[in-house]
From TrEMBL:
The protein's name: Glycosyl transferase 64 domain-containing protein
Family named by the database record: Belongs to the glycosyltransferase 64 family.
Signal peptide: 1-24
Organism expressing this protein natively: Leersia perrieri
Annotated keywords: Disulfide bond, Signal, Transferase
Span list, region Disordered: 248-269
Superkingdom of this protein's organism: Eukaryota
One term of GO molecular function: glycosyltransferase activity
GO CC annotation terms, alphabetical: membrane
Length: 335
């Protein structure tokens, strides 16, 4: 009879082989065929699935810690780690994310950042929290975001998020510009996929709509702007702008460049430097303005809508990212 250790080793190898098989077989038709359309009546409306996007092996320890924290939240039914680096050895991934009833691993066939919105048939809930691998909300913040999404005004509803951005028409250059939320009136038209709550039907629309094929190609070409395109999709369906939320505890953001890089927790500077916007400077904002202009041209309409104000559960102000400064965890905009 094989030893207990031998049995565990065989199970580990079988799981690793399964991960490789998923990646090799993944094609768009697997998610967009007639039988793949989500049946909203069968999805849990009272719980939440968290989809964490991962690519950098450097961030794997932090990603695992964040996945475990999400899984412990009483409203979270499932956590999916959407790994978009097909070159990572499956043994590395399975050692980081061993088989679990709550945390599952999906390795994508390509490194496309469109993959973070794949409408996986295994998602068991109507609402999905899509998040980066370096942000973690407080329990209260995640609960508020989900409750806000549940009380949306339309079946698909607007996006609910924590990090607002806006757009405006640059008349001099005859193009759209990407900006921070306008102050002091607090006008915004987008929320970032650092962390947002979205209906699973919008994942299907984003991934499977033939009308969006050229826009998805722009995302692949630029390795950027998938969040902007999702805001286009949500606003086009709902006719509304997104909803900004803020709760006690905020969102811990390891990737925010306003961290002081002291490395006091979870990787410090090494984690911060991997993100798209951490080193791009103004070129990053320029590229995203170009994306808005291109999406408008390709769709032939501008669906983005402005929103004002936010849903709050405690008195606070400003963008709620939490950063490490001088060994203390403070709001990122605090000097």
């Amino acid at each position: 009879m094989p030893s207990h250790r031998r049995v565990l080793h065989l199970l580990f190898l079988a799981a690793a082989a399964a991960v490789v098989a998923v990646a090799g077989e993944e094609v768009e038709d697997a998610f967009c065929g007639g039988d793949s359309t989500p049946d909203m009546a069968t999805l849990r409306p009272d719980r939440l699935t968290v989809v964490l996007s991962g690519y950098s092996e450097q961030r794997l320890p932090l990603l695992r810690a964040i996945a475990v924290a999400y899984a412990a939240h009483p409203l979270v039914l499932a956590v999916v780690v959407m790994w978009s680096n097909p070159t990572t050895p499956s043994t590395v991934l399975l050692s980081t994310f061993p088989p679990s009833p709550t945390i599952t691993l999906h390795v994508t066939a390509t490194s496309s950042i469109n993959s973070r919105f794949l409408p996986l048939p295994s998602i068991p809930t109507a609402a999905v929290a899509v998040a980066d691998d370096d942000v973690l909300p407080s329990a209260a913040a995640l609960s508020l975001a989900f409750a806000t999404w549940q009380h949306r005004s339309s079946s698909s509803g607007p996006l609910v998020g924590f990090f607002p951005r806006s757009h405006h028409l640059d008349l001099t250059r005859r193009r759209w510009a990407y900006t921070a939320a306008t102050q002091p009136e607090g006008r915004y038209s987008m929320v970032l996929t650092k962390l947002l709550v979205v209906g699973v039907d919008l994942l299907y629309r984003y991934t499977c709509s033939p009308e969006l094929a050229a826009a998805r190609d722009v995302v692949d070409r630029e390795r950027n702007c998938e969040d902007i395109l999702m805001n286009f999709v949500a606003a086009d369906v709902s006719g509304e702008g997104p909803v900004l939320v803020e709760a006690d505890g905020g969102v811990r953001d390891w990737g925010d460049p306003r961290n002081d890089g002291d490395g006091g927790d979870a990787g410090g500077e090494a984690v911060k430097g991997v993100g798209l916007s951490s080193t791009g400077g103004m070129a990053h904002w320029e590229k995203r303005g170009n994306c808005i202009t291109e999406f408008h041209r390709l769709l032939g309409r501008m669906p983005l809508r402005y929103s004002y104000g936010k849903v709050v559960a405690a008195a606070a102000g400003g963008e709620p990212g939490m950063c490490s400064k001088g060994g203390r965890l403070v709001r990122c905009d605090q000097e």
